[in-house]
Structures
1.
Amino acid sequence: MSFHFFHVINGHLNVEDIPLAVLVERFGTPLYVYSRAALTHAYQAYARACAGRNARIHYAVKANSNLAVLNVFARLGAGFDIVSGGELARVHAAGGRADQIVFSGVGKQKDEMRAALRANMCCFNVESIPELHRLNEIAAETGMCARIALRVNPDIDARTHPYIATGLKTDKFGIAFDNARAAAHTAAALSHLNLVGLACHIGSQITTTAPYLEALDKMLALIDTIEAAGVALSHLDIGGGLGIHYHAEGDADAEPLPEIGAFVSTLLDYVEQRGHAQRTLLFEPGRSLVGNAGVLLTRIEYLKQNGEKRFAIVDAAMNDLARPAMYRAYHEITPVVQRDGLTPVLYDVVGPVCESSDWLGRNRPLAVQPGDLLAVHGAGAYSFAMSSNYNTRPRAAEVMVDGTQAYLIRERETVKQLFAGEACLPIKN
Ligand code: LLP
């Protein structure tokens, strides 16, 4: 059972060249650990498939926005896809190039627009007519012209979890497909906007290429109609969304997935076949770049049994990893150090938070004792990034491993930090 850069040697789970148990001794639990080699490997799969083609990669910062992760991608030459002023600041701080940033999101605020204009970013992906007008006003105010793409909702069923499908017409995202032509004309007529492309994003954890081809089909036809009316469009942003394995390789339940390289080439070939070779295709991958590059390490505090049900109560919780509680998402869970001579029994792996949805895995066969360490796999994407302080729980530390070296890339929060900005009322009696 393995996830590429996380592998078992003599019963010990290692990341690259370091046993994870050693990292726990140094940094404690709960602990997020990322492999630089895994990040690089995933990025290079995209980059190789894009080499010599008319394509660019914009890492979706929301998946994992730690500065060290962003810095690894910036050094590899990635562009970025952001959704807030905060993410813009992170990309800056991590050394990412502003002219390689696209700014997505349905609710861009005026200050965020100003900051993005000042940064001279690559492109705003505009999601509504009111946003077009707001951006035009802000650009006029700052004496600039904003490069924009229209994010269109192509009404495609991405066949994924409903909470992470984004490209159906009942979703809040993008401009309705049937209104896109009119929106393009509105945009082209606004003095401080420069319409340069179209964008779409159909969802996340998508495990086949087919919904992308459907989206491309519709989007390329739309580009043809808009260009026929005299508006030139230089790029198409196809969004992110390629899924990852949450079950270990070799498991019967492992998700059937296209290889990253094959996925990218299929899309680029399709764009060429449709006579759009001159058009730049932008990819905004998040999960497929970082998801399998990370684990969450946690220690078993107690084992307990309520009737027939056995629980392994661990020191990580839904505030550290919300995906199981939010989407009933499956994450593989394995011991960090395997025990011999103990028969596995089925446990629900649960945290200390006061919610019944606070579980990390259900009915998992584990041969464990109190005090043992568990690794929750597939925890590089939407994991730390979605963590919270619910139950006044300080967020976990994050570590990045590079060969034989481990670097603390985010300190564990302290309880004091959590209420540092709070104050009691000045009540006299
Ligand atoms: N571009 C846009 C405009 C997006 O909204 C997203 C993700 C991406 C790119 C990156 O998609 P990816 O390659 O990572 O699938 N919290 C959920 C996932 C939400 C995805 C939101 N949008 C989860 O934990 O599964």
2.
Amino acid sequence: MPITSRAAVIREAPGKFEITEVQVDDPRQNEIRIKMVASGLCHSDDHVVTGDLPVAVYPVCGGHEGAGIVESVGPNTPGFAPGDKVVFSFLPACGKCRWCSSGHQNLCDLGATVLVGSRWEDPTSFRLKLEDGSPVAQFLGISTFSEYTTVSVDSAIKVADDTPLEKACLLGCAAGTGWGSAVNSGDVKPGDTVLILGVGGIGTMAVQGAAHAGAANVIVVDPVAFKREHAQELGATHAVATAEEAAELAQSFTNGQGADVSIVTTGVISGEHVAQAFAATRKAGTVVVTALGKATDVGVPISLLELTMYEKTVKGSLFGSSNPRADIPRLLELYRNGYLKLDEVITTEYSLDEINQGYEDMHAGKNIRGVIRF
Ligand code: CXF
Ligand code: ZN
Ligand code: ZN
């Protein structure tokens, strides 16, 4: 029997989250139904609210950074049992495609379908429905802003029974995205000078990744004083309000050369942010572009002469170039050993009904990562 669940849905964009009842399908083969425990309030869901990130089908139920407990398991679906704890990966990993089998699970071919929000193997079928039977799309195939959600096993990582899911939910996006932006995409090396633009949930994870990789200087830029202070508690060595100040600092630490690695994790990215990071980066250095902005935006105003003559690299980063099946358990272990801080990044918990408040607080710079506790 489908389960009735309260969920935060977006009916149009721009719009806002509305709490409504949805019907959550029984799990089919290779699916599991999850009772959610916690879900992080990532800026990417807000990009759906504003319409910066359009999805194919509305209404859509948001949320992509979640963890919960298996309620039921589809037929002939090995590997999961009711009661198992699960962290979602916001990108599915089939394990078989070219990308999954060559160390790039974040680029799994199944990712092509996740903005539709239906079953990838049966694209006209949706796992969530309104009372009248009309479809509700699942953001990135998971929709973690619902008390219950049915997902493909491609999107689920089983974790140990003693995992604190109210913290581990961050492994579903922020931790891998931020930490991986520094450690994987940026390949930060001991002694490096790293510049991080924007220190919300993703940026503070990038700070931790850079510090753990041995960066000598981790310079963060954020206009919000609370965020700058928070980043310093999590490993930033210097915190300033503008990119210009950060560029000067980076030069002062590197004999005038500039940052080895710059990471752009601003809430709403523009070409100007990438250009600022580019200008602050040394010859043969790397600019990692992690943030999202308006989907239709094009163009980065950088010097093409500098690009060629200084051999700088500008690279995109999706889920921190990580392999969720390996890296979610790896980051969980780093959390258990005290190397990765999650508790400190979660500054405020909200109920599902308070979701719009959570996003207001995010915009006002009052939280680092807000988390919904179900
Ligand atoms: C994003 C990446 C693009 C789709 C939405 C989620 N990553 C992190 O929030
Ligand atoms: Zn996210
Ligand atoms: Zn794949």
3.
Amino acid sequence: MKGALFDLDGVIANTAIYHFAAWRNLVKKHFNAELPDSLEEKTKGVSREDSLRVILDYLHITVSDKEFQALSEEKNTAYVQALDHLTKADILPGISQLIHDLKKHHVKIALASASQNGPIILKKLGLFDEFDAIANPQLVHAGKPAPDIFLAAAKAIDVEPNDCVAIEDSVAGISAINEAGAISIAVGGLELSHAKKRFNNTNELTYEAIEATWQQYHH
Ligand code: B16
Ligand code: MG
């Protein structure tokens, strides 16, 4: 195991709730409509623009390009505001220890998040300097479930994807990892059963558990 590729929202910090709350408020304000809980999974790991497309499709609403852009920006402004109070205390259980242990074993660490806010969030969590690389989602051709962001993250740490494990909390993200050829590790429910290995909570993501998964599945 030479590299570990991390998703951000839902793996390192529980920012997924702020994303969906921002979408809900936006939809309420502009269209006086409610979004069902079931739509949250469909926007997880999915880029800002693709999330907005999923939501507008659900509402059967079409908007001009200009409105689309404005809605997307308004959601981001609200989301970034919600991140204001984020601190080290918002790192999900077990993640700081895992990062520490991976580094101790000379495993390189890269961020493979769809979020353009990745660097800001890592800084707020005090984790920015722990990462060897952050893949830029704006520079990849296609978002999750396409493998591009995981391929870019592996390349940024100069490790072959099949020498990496990658950790995700979204359906689209696990598909992206599998497509990239890294070993997929899920944190979350049964909807993530297409991962090589699934854990219910981040506190189960110990170095030992990750290493055991690596031993079992790499070739
Ligand atoms: P932003 P991840 C993803 O992050 C979120 O899961 C998804 O809900 C969000 O739409 C996407 O980032 C884009 O985020 O609007 O901040 O650029 O799970 O890939 O770390
Ligand atoms: Mg995620």
